[in-house]
Amino acid sequence: MQRQTSLGRVVRVGLLTMVGLFFLFPIFWVFLMSFQTNQEILRIPPSLFFEPTLHNYQVLFSGRLETQTGTLEVRFMQNLMNSVILATSSVALSLVLGIPAAYAFARFKFRLGEDIAFTLLSFRFAPPLLVLLPLAIYFQQLGLINTYTGLIWVYQLITLPLILWIVRGYFEDISEDIEHAYRIDGNGWFKTFWKIAIPLAKPGIAAATLLSFIFAWNNFVFALILASADKQPVTVGALAFVTASGIQYGQIAASIVLSVTPTLALALYAQRYLVEGLSLGAVKG
Amino acid sequence: MATLTLDKVSKVYQARRAAPVLAVDAVDMAIADGEIVGLLGSSGCGKTSTLRMIAGFEDVTSGAIEVGERVINDLLPAERNIAMAFEGYALYPPLRVKDNIGFALLRDRQPRAEVDRKVKEVAALLEIESALERYPPMISAGQQQRTSLARALIRSADVFLLDEPMSQLEPQLRAVLRARLKDWLISRKMTTVFVTHDQTEAIALADRIAVMEQGVLQQLASPEELKERPANLFVASFIGEPPMNLFAARVDRSRSDLGLVVLDDQGEKAFRLDFDEAVDGLADGQAVHLGIRPHRFRLGPGPGAVDATVVSHSWLGDQTHIGLERAGTTFILVANGEVHAAIGDPFTVHAPMSAIHLFDAETDQAVFHGSEFRGSELRG
To answer: Between residues 151 and 190 of chain B, which touch chain A (CB distance below 8 Å)?
Structure first.
């Protein structure tokens, strides 16, 4: 019996390690690449042993890349700032619009309610490329092309449905009677929404915020078409390392490491809210 | 503390792409100031919908609800001055039990010391003093339910609504709290409507009980009246434990002033009861349902006698339940004290005139109660 359990434990740990390695290996490899020169990266066979260099990071921070054909300007830091502005603003806007909407869909039955909710979800079905060309033309005419406003607007296609549907589920899980009790104790519906519904759905709101932030951060194709260099986020900005004199794998790896850092930090920070979200069941009595 | 009047109140639920459901059908109810009324019925009978319309969580489809002289149909829950205890407790999870209970008072800016005193008083009534400093998810379901009840009772509202207020409590505690709760409600003249599916609770707590079925108010009357003069077949069969014995029967005046031919499943004669007293309003040959409560049978021969055979027998320690059979028709008898009988024994009982209830076979409405005929015999 004892042997079986310890054997089981060994097998389990072994399997978990393998799964972990499988998923983490690309990230680990990119992390190593970011400290290597292009020559070391392209060496065959690849090796775990090399002389680490901070050159790739220096290029990103200084914004200047020396190549055989001359000096290139790298706008990585500005791209990073653009990513922060775009992802944060579009998530914030989606929260302002999406949470009240989610509450309405969860609590009130109204004409076409389900249809509207489904339409909003269906924004996520269509491949973005399908709408990009007409969108680009309209944006050109409206003067929205290459503006933060225009991009944040388009990003709502990514963030709004996500927040709406996740938060709606959390609102539906909250016992309606808690809100009823609060209302019959003498409070209006807005105060009930603000003081009861939102605090109780907080774990869900945190989870939805995190997810939609990651999706917005990782978006590539909208910004590629609708923004030029000074408004592009890091995902598009990394293309700059595909230069006339070759692909700068080292800098691409370094920019990936830097651009993953904010979302990783956010995910680690929000983890406790996600765990709280799982224990919401205890609240329902 | 005010009167509560329901005037032809109806509720229709209209789900998308589905036929409308009439959950509450033209309910009339006049509840006096300080009266305690229990809404009793099986699940889905409309009792909770009625309660929620009074509270303001459901729109009233038609009709009017009045508190005192004021029609409250279109008022927000917050404006109705009604307190409610929820079946699902609905406590505020981040607040301690004492703050949950005192919530409405604190909101009205009553001084903290005064609120604490009231919280202690109501907590003592419901025996949850030990839980006051704890948070709702940490206490038992029974304590949560009493917290929810306390949160309603502490308020000085016009009307108090209690939805299944004691369903989670163990039987002993429930019996004790029922009596205390009733004292509390009476001494403060609190107009109360509570919902329950437990008729013992309804009988113990209520001044009058409203029996509902399929959205229709069947009868609103005192517990005694529901037992002695049920308005229709449903109320007769719903109230009382064990339930009333019901037989299909036919009035037959050929042999006596009031003869009742009891029919079996095939409509054949099983046995007949004869009484020497004439009753107005019954036609010869009229099809009726005959109802006799199990504890109203008398042992031995007499007017309305039935010679039957014992099919089951159980001694419960204070009363004896005996199942009897006569020509394919079975019924149950409850006798106080121990009555010896073996299965298969012949057994003669009689139902006095006062034990007889008759309901029209077509309308199910009551046409005759023996208790009306001889009121003095009632409590015997």
So the answer is: 151, 155
Domain A76-284 fold is MetI-like fold (1.10.3720)
Per-residue pLDDT of chain A (285 residues), as tens digits, is 455 678 889 999 999 999 998 998 998 889 999 998 888 888 888 777 888 888 889 888 888 877 777 777 878 888 999 999 999 999 999 999 999 999 999 988 887 888 888 888 887 787 888 888 888 999 999 998 889 999 999 999 889 999 998 999 999 988 899 999 999 988 988 999 999 999 988 888 988 998 899 999 998 888 888 888 788 898 888 888 887 777 888 888 999 999 888 888 888 887 777 666 555 444 433
Out of B82, B90, B137, the one facing A177 most closely (by C-beta) is B90
| Chain A to chain B Cβ contacts (< 8 Å) | 66
Where in chain A are the domains? 2-73, 76-284
Torsions phi, psi for B306 (to 5 deg):
-130, 130
Cβ contact (<8 Å) for A282 and B137? yes
A189 contacts on B by Cβ (under 8 Å)? 76
CATH of domain B4-231: 3.40.50.300
Q: Are A60 and A248 in contact (CB under 8 A)?
A: no
Residue at A211: amino acid letter = L
What are the sequence ranges of the domains in chain B? 4-231, 245-377
Using the Cβ of B236 and the Cβ atoms of chain A, whether some distance falls under 8 Å is answered with no
A196, B92 Cβ separation under 8 angstroms: yes
Give the homologous superfamily in CATH for domain B245-377. Nucleic acid-binding proteins (2.40.50.140)
Partner-chain residue, chosen from B87, B93, B107, that has the shortest CB–CB distance to A186: B107
Q: Does B91 touch chain A if contact means CB atoms closer than 8 Å?
A: yes
Q: What are A's interface residues with B at a Cβ cutoff of 8 A?
A: 109, 114, 175, 177-178, 180-189, 196, 199-200, 282-283, 285
SS (HEC) of chain A: CHHHHHHHHHHHHHHHHHHHHHHHHHHHHHHHHCCCCHHHHHCCCCCCCCCCCCHHHHHHHHCEEEECCEEEECCHHHHHHHHHHHHHHHHHHHHHHHHHHHHHHHHCCCCCHHHHHHHHHHCCCCCHHHHHHHHHHHHHHHCCCCCHHHHHHHHHHHHHHHHHHHHHHHHHHCCHHHHHHHHHCCCCHHHHHHHHHHHHCHHHHHHHHHHHHHHHHHCCHHHHHHCCHHHCCHHHHHHHHEECCEECHHHHHHHHHHHHHHHHHHHHHHHHHHHHHHHHHHHHC
